[in-house]
Design brief:
Blueprint lengths: L2 H51 L10 H4 L19 E2 L8 E2 L2 H9 L3
Helix pairs in contact: 1-3
Length: about 110
């Protein structure tokens, strides 16, 4: 086998090892992002219900206690971002956000 073919096999093998090593982390990040987006949707739905039930305006700001604490609330447990971010509920008239910019950006693009 020529030196050129051996070098190509070594490079190809290194690339394959790299792909196999990195791919699980890419998939985990994608799953985590989907879970974060789901949490943002749940927060938004809870805000909408809270505002409707309590006759709140778009400028009112619910707290986590208004939405999330306990089984009789709009959300049974305070959501935790799987990407390590933190959620901001925000005003009724605005979408909630996550401190992970990519998740918030995607959520806002898909929830006008």
């Amino acid at each position: 086998m020529s030196v050129k073919k051996k070098a190509m096999l070594v490079v190809g093998g290194c690339f394959a090892v790299l792909v196999v090593t990195v791919l699980p982390f890419v998939r985990i990040k994608t799953i985590a992002s989907v879970s974060c987006l789901g949490n943002l949707r749940v927060i938004q739905a809870a805000k909408d219900e809270w505002a409707k039930d309590h006759h709140k305006s778009n400028d009112d700001i619910p707290t986590w206690n208004d939405l999330a604490v306990g089984p009789e609330r709009y959300i049974k447990h305070k959501p935790e971002c799987p990407n390590g971010g933190s959620y901001t509920i925000g005003r009724v008239g605005e979408l909630p956000s996550c401190s992970v910019p990519a998740d918030t950006e995607y959520f806002r693009k898909n929830n006008p």
